[in-house]
Design brief:
Rossmann fold; alpha/beta
Length: about 300
């Protein structure tokens, strides 16, 4: 079974959706157009949509509202905002609601859009394989529990150990999948940072400072789990008091106490990556890169 990767373009401008569909077809992508965002949830479910090109300024329903609705739906979907009016506030809101890329209308090459779609399709395949692996482990755990329940005298401790080992195997599989990203799949922001370093317009020390600031501004797994109602305040306080410092330690604690499943941990990690502020924005704010290198004002795409 493959992860569905159909592309849906949501924009009230009929002529523009036709243009995008025509240009993307020449690049090997079949794009389904939707000019009324009010029924997007039905289309996403019935057509097994994996990637969505989304306008923001639409008369019936704003794109940010659509983003928020998509985030609440089960499954893994990727969103590329494709809009002609994007302010700094809009960028921050879209990032918080789960957008993966931001493209400025009429200021990008369609090959860039094709590259972004290809990158997101690769990420979705990795997520899908991880979800399948977790589902297999869960089925095996259920079968093992049923077998042991039917055999009196079995050691219940061994049963618990088997389930816990399967859980950690699923997490390890997910980590391996994340680390096996194909070459050339770096985000446009990453490529831009490497280019700035190569041109000696950015030092590694300044980049390190920006990364530390990004870490401070990114919510922890514990905070995200609490905000989503996965944890009670008492559980969150207990883990915080235990002094778990790293995200990996927090994830292990959530799993070992059976407060979150491996799938939920992956969802939290994905949301955490989306909420991480763009390094280019931080570097520009710190004055570490020239204003002519500012992504928000001089490039056509911003990766989130």
């Amino acid at each position: 079974m493959q992860a569905p990767n159909h592309v849906l373009h949501v924009d009230d401008d009929v002529s523009y959706t036709r243009l995008v569909a025509r240009r993307m077809k020449t690049l090997g992508y079949s794009v389904i157009s939707l000019n009324d965002p009010r029924g997007i949830e039905t289309h996403v479910t019935s057509l097994q949509i994996g990637i969505i090109l989304l306008d923001l300024d639409m008369p019936w329903r704003h794109g940010l509202e659509v983003l928020e609705s998509l985030r609440k739906m089960p499954g893994d979907r990727r969103v590329i905002v494709l809009s002609g009016c994007i302010s700094v506030g809009t960028v921050i809101n879209a990032m918080a609601l789960g957008a993966d890329y931001l493209f400025f209308k009429d200021r990008f090459d369609f090959s860039e859009l094709a590259d972004a779609i290809a990158s997101l399709q690769s990420r979705r395949r990795q997520w899908f394989r991880g979800a399948q692996q977790t589902a297999r482990h869960q089925r095996l755990n259920r079968l093992e529990r049923d077998r042991r329940a039917a055999e009196p005298g079995e050691n219940t401790l061994s049963e618990s150990s088997t389930g816990e080992q399967a859980m950690w195997d699923a997490v390890a599989s997910h980590d391996d999948t994340k680390s096996a990203a194909p070459k050339g799949s770096r985000s446009p922001e990453s490529r831009q940072i490497q280019e700035l370093i190569r041109k000696r317009m950015l030092t590694k020390a300044a980049l390190g400072r920006a990364e530390r600031i990004a870490d401070q501004l990114t919510p922890t797994l514990l905070q995200l789990a609490l905000s989503r109602g996965m944890l009670t305040p008492e559980d969150a306080i207990r883990i915080a008091i235990a002094g778990k410092k790293t995200e990996a330690a927090i994830a292990r604690e959530l799993l070992s106490q059976k407060l979150c499943t491996a799938t939920e941990i992956r969802q939290l990690e994905h949301q955490q990556s989306l909420l991480r502020p763009p390094l280019i924005t931080i570097l520009s704010t710190l004055g570490e890169i020239p204003k002519t290198e500012n992504t928000a004002s001089n490039t056509s795409v911003l990766a989130i």
